[in-house]
Amino acid sequence: MLHSKGEYCVKRITRISRLRSCGLFRNFTWPSDLPEFGQYNLIYGWNWTGKTTLSRLFRDLELGRAPTMGEAEMSIDGSNVRGENFPQSTLQVRVFNRDFIQENVFPVGDSDMPPILVLGAANVEKHKEIERLKGDRDAAQSHLEAARSEKQTARKDFDQFCIDRAKVTKDTLRSSGQNLYNNYDKSNFQVDATKMVEAAASDTHRLTDTERDGLLARHQSTPKPIVAELDYTLPDFSTIMASVSELLTTTVVSAAIETLKGDPTLADWTRQGLALHRNRNAERCLFCRQPLLRDRLADLEAHFSTQYEQFIQRIDQKISELKAASTESARLRLPAKTELYDDLGPKFQSPEAGLKKALELVRDFLDAAALALEDKKGRAFERVKLELEAPPVVVDTIEKLNEVIRKHNQVCSDFETQIGETRKRLADDMIAAEVEAFVCRRDAADRATADVQSRVQGVECLTRAIAKLEREIIEHHQPAEELNEDLHKYLGHQELSLEIRKTGYAITRGGVPAPSLSEGETTAIALLYFLKSLQDRRFALANGVIVLDDPVSSLDANALFLAFGFIRERTKDAGQLFVLTHSFPFFRQVRNWFHHQKGQKKKDVHQRPARFFMLDSALEENARRSAIRWLDPLLEQYESEYQYLFARVHRASTELTSQGLEQNYVLPNVARRMLEAFLAFRQPHISGDLWQKLKEVQFDEAKKLRILRFLHTHSHSIAMGEPEHDLTALAEGPNVLNNLLEMIKSLDDTHFSAMVQLVAPSGDSGEAEEEAVTV
User: Fold this and answer.
1) What does the DSSP 8-state code read for residue 284?
2) How many angstroms separate the CA atoms of 534 and 511, rounded?
3) In this structure, are residues 473 and 119 in contact, taking their beta carbons and an 8 Å threshold?
């Protein structure tokens, strides 16, 4: 950041841009007409107006942590920094408040005060070496961060690869029921892939496309029932042909009737008719009813002799055997392909087709043989040549089918085991396909990890070297002696001292640990320790921001003046200074100091090094809300707070009725402080509380009681608390304040007139007061 003339300027906090739900700052936004913070900033505010909240916000920035309460946003050199980004801020800040005291000066337990580190002349060379080593460490740290980024990238790439491959395996092999691949993850994949790499067995686990398709089909199958093997034997074609041929070539020797011998159809019809007449003992022809001639019957009997009948029966028996065999082959049931596991389908398909073709040829063969015998029955008296050949049937077709069926039945008997083995083979195949990529990514991640470890060791080595040199040059005897000197000057005695310990300082009284300290002693030690810590070599005062929150709380006038002297001396060269206080005497000291800064008299407030602010608290929507305002001119111009208090009371006594009841809440405390200041001047000889002083005032008793009741009920002598519930008393505020002004006028009319002229010179108190407090 540059000044208008071009000289270098340190980074500064320019404004508190926004506060939401931060204590009393319920909804604060920096007003557009409010000047930004300068190099020196004085913020005046009574207790319970938000000073502690602001100091804790600054301390959050100092410690690099996000505010724990509400939302905050600061502007640093014009750039807004949100509270959650405080940890990334490089601005050096030191805050003195109650939290600093509790955490560093008087921590809970037996902890010592942290040491303040300064640099002695004898250690300059070591300090230069430390700075060099720190430069090397910064470079090593930068390389380490780059290595960590590469490691993170490589590890992420490796993990994502394992996640993706595990997901493919899981999605491919998952199933209902118990299955270890249902929960297959990257850890499982890494273990399996590592084992395969160590065994150098990836090639042995690869599958052909056909094997993979078959195993996938089996994996996707469900349990099937056992299928019966085929119980069928192909006919012995040679035997059948021999027996049929024998029948065809056999002839019957008998007194044959030529007409029947040459007409098989007529012979068969006659034979059947003869048997029918014989069985009925018929004497007449059943067809024409003519008498049967005995000679004709004898001729027929001779033609169809016993030998003939027996031969025909042989033929009929063989025909029946052939038809039965044909029927058996036709009725043979083959299992459907769907009854077998899918991977067995291709092995079943070819022998199934062969068997079906063989059975068809068998039936054709048997039917042809039976037909030839049927023809022979009409040609029993002649030799017939067999014109039939054995079909080209593969005799082991049925056995091949039964082999497939047996494999199916074996799978049925041990389904889960075989399915598990199937999934394992498929998983191994998928892993084997990715082994090369797995090794590549794993090795890259391992190399990146090793690189990080090596660089971590390098940084740690440099850190140890720096720490060794720092231990050699750390010398907190000098700041302890200087602190003791400051403390003795401040207190005016040497009873209290800081005793040097290995890890810091301990407070002693008369050489022994001091178990209890007065409030003044506590404040003195805490403040002096803080101011001395600004010289710590770990903090650059000229580039840093100093924040002091009520550093002189509860100090008497002499101690306050001494404290101010130390503060002015130790913080005058700070890059930026904030002083927050409710003590008007201390406020006055700081204000006068700031007024004498070079360039403070410039007309343009934006060119002045010092800026003056105040915290204003008001009741809105049944809740107190604080805001940062420009300091009221009456507080900036006069040596007493009295003028400002009088202006507030005078204005409220004339305008209060139009502003709403909520504006009354702040006025009892304002009126009390004004009255106490007035009576302290008028009656310096009377000690005691407010009522003791009022009793000596010659004024209407009823009005005095009314004033006292209003002030006691709705104010606190030190801090403005929450209002009471007596809204009736608050509602009469304008009348009570008029009574108060009336009493002051009756006691000192000249003083009253001068004050009215000061705060409302135009005679219009409302307009004058508004003009007086406007920036």
Assistant:
1) B
2) 27
3) yes
Max distance between CA atoms of the chain, in angstroms, equals 187
Q: Using CA atoms, how far apart are residues 134 and 128, in angstroms rounded to an integer?
A: 10
Residue among 671, 643, 647, 644 nearest 733 (CA) = 671
pTM of full prediction above 0.85: no
| pLDDT per residue as tens digits for the range 640-659 | 777 888 888 888 777 644 44
Q: How far is CA 564 from the centre of its chain?
A: 51
Tokens representing 258 are 């030529």
Task: Please tell me what DSSP assigns to residue 57.
Answer: H
Q: What is the spatial order of strands in the sheet that 13-22 belongs to?
A: 25-29, 13-22, 71-76, 79-82
What does the angle CA 403 – CA 350 – CA 207 come to, to the nearest 5 degrees? Answer: 75
What DSSP designation does 286 have? Answer: T
| 628/22 Cα distance (integer angstroms) | 13
Residue type, 624: R
For residue 291, the 8-state DSSP code is B
675-690, pLDDT tens digit by residue? 888 888 888 777 767 8
Closest CA to 694 of 685, 683, 674: 683
Mean of per-residue pLDDT scores for the chain:
81
Read off the DSSP letter of residue 504: S
Nearest to 642 by CA among 763, 758, 738: 758
Task: Please list, in sequence order, all residues whose beta carbon lies within 8 angstroms of the beta carbon of residue 658, skipping any fewer than 6 positions away.
Answer: none
Quickly state the pLDDT bin for 297 (edges 50, 70, 90).
low
CA separation, residue 293 to residues 286, 296, 299, 300 (Å): 13, 5, 10, 11
Do 274 and 415 meet the contact criterion of CB atoms below 8 Å apart?
no
The more confident residue out of 238 and 722 is 238
Gap between the Cα atoms of 267 and 259, Å rounded: 8
Per the CB < 8 A criterion, the answer to whether 43 and 613 are in contact is yes
Place of tokens 């404004």: 15
Which tens digit of pLDDT belongs to each residue from 91-123?
A: 999 999 988 888 887 776 556 666 665 544 445
Would strands 71-76 and 79-82 be described as parallel, antiparallel, or unpaired?
A: antiparallel
Count Cα neighbours of 495 within 13 Å in the Cβ-side half-sphere: 8
C-alpha 516: how far from its chain's center?
Answer: 49
Distance CA 601, CA 608 (A): 7
Residues for the chain: how many in total?
775
The C-alpha atoms of residue 634 and residue 647 are separated, in whole angstroms, by 8
Query: Which one, of 250, 259, 240, 241, lies nearest residue 377 by Cα?
Result: 250
Contact present, 388 and 372 (Cβ < 8 Å): yes
Q: Are strands 512-513 and 496-500 parallel, antiparallel or unpaired?
A: unpaired
Query: From CA 215, how far away is CA 422, in angstroms rounded?
Result: 6
SS3 sequence of 75-126: EECCEEEEHHHHHHCCCCEEEECHHHHHHHHCCCCCCCECCCCCCCHHHHHH
In angstroms, the CA 125 to CA 103 distance is: 34
Distances (CA, A) of 484 to 332, 528, 548: 117, 9, 22
**Angle at 69 (CA atoms; ends 66, 74), nearest 5 degrees:** 55
